[in-house]
Amino acid sequence: MAPCRLVLEVISCTILIIISKGQVWSLSNSDITHTMLRKCNTTISSQFEKEGEITSLGYPNYYEEGITCAYTLLGKPLERVQLLFTHFNLPEPAKDIPEHQRCLHTDFVAIYNMNNNTIRREIDHYCGSSVPLPVMSSKSGMQVVFKSGANPLTRLPHPFVYGFSVRFKFVKDFGITSGQQTKPGTCKFIYNSTLVRNGTLNSPNPGGFYPQDTTCHYIFRARNGEIVRLIFKYFDVEGILPCDRTSDSDSLEFSNFPSADRKIPPYCGANGPKIMQSDASYFRVTFKSNDKFDGTGFTADFQFLDISKQPHVIRRIIAPIVTGSKG
C-alpha cells in the first residue's frame, strides 16, 4: 500500500476528529474534498463540498493587513450551514471600548444569514482570542467575512498564531441526534416509548447558538398508562415575559394536545422550567426563535414513566431555573 501523502489540495489517508461541547465531528479522506487555502471572496457550494474548512489568508502564519475577505456558503433548500471554530486568535481590542463596540476597532470575523443568495442579517461578529461557540444559519446560506486593519500586532512575533480556522457543514438534521426526524430539513422529531425509554432533548445546533427564524417540534408518544417527564439541565432562550410576539421573544412551549395548551404558559429568558410532565401519553414541545436575537438554547433529559408503577407521581412540577441567560 502506498504511504500517506499530504498535498496542498487534499488530505489523504487521514481521519480528523473534532470534539466541541459534546458534539463529535469526524472527517475522513472521503469527506474532505478541499482543504486548500481558499482565495479571498469565494463561494462554496454544498453541491461540491458537504463539509470543509475556512481559514484566514496565510493561516497558520500571519495574515495580511488591510484586507476584507468574504466566504459565501450556499446549501440546498433543505440544508442549514453549521460552523465550528477550531482556532481563533485576533488582536484584542482596547479595554476601555464599550462591549458592543469593541470589535469595530480591531480585526474581526462577521457572520451573516443569507436568503435567496442575498445577505439578510448579521448573526454576530467576533474579535479577540476567545473561540466563538458553534453557529447555524437560519436558511440554506451563510457568509463569513474577515476584515483586518493596519494593526502592527499582526507583524510582531507571538507565541500563538494570529488568525482563525473554522469547520463548516451542510446539515439537514439541525445537529439534533435524538429522536426520529420526520423529514430531512424539517425540524420535527418523534420520541416513541416503544423505541427509546429515555434520552436527551436539545435545541437546534446543540452546544452553540440556535439559529434564528426557526421552529422545532418535539413529539412524545408513550404507551397507554405512561407519561413523559422532562428535567431541564440548561435553559437560555432569548426573551422576556410574556414570552410571545408582543415581547419579541423566542420561546419554549408545552402542550398535552396537538394544538395549544392554555394551561401551560410559554417560557423564555431566565424563566425556564425545571421539571415538566405530561398529563397522558401524548406531549408536544415547541421551540420558536425570531430574527432578532438568539441564545444558546436548552438541554433536558426525558424519561417515559409507567404511572401504574409510580403511584405517587406528581402530575406537573414547574419551577424557574436560575441561569445567566439574556432576558
Name the descriptors.
single chain, about 325 residues, mainly beta, 5-stranded mixed β-sheet, elongated
Can you give a write-up of this model?
The protein is elongated, with a radius of gyration of 22 Å. The strands form five sheets. Strands 3-5-10-7-8 form a five-stranded mixed beta sheet, with no helix packed on it. The protein has a five-stranded mixed beta sheet with strand order 12-13-15-19-17, with no helix packed on it. The chain has no helices and 20 strands. Strand 12 and strand 13 form a beta hairpin. By secondary structure, the chain is an all-beta fold.
Radius of gyration: 22 Å
Count the E strands.
20
Separation, N- and C-terminal Cα atoms = 59 Å
Counting DSSP H or I runs of 4 or more residues, the number of helices is 0
Uncertain residue segments: 1-36, 152-157
Spatial ordering of strands, largest sheet? 3-5-10-7-8
Proportion in helices: under 10%
Report the mean per-residue pLDDT as an integer: 83
Please summarize the sheet with the most strands.
Answer: 5 strands, mixed
- What overall geometry do the principal axes of the alpha carbons give? elongated
Class computed from helices, strands and strand pairing: mainly beta
Topology as H/E string?
EEEEEEEEEEEEEEEEEEEE
- As a percent range, the share of strand residues is 35-45%
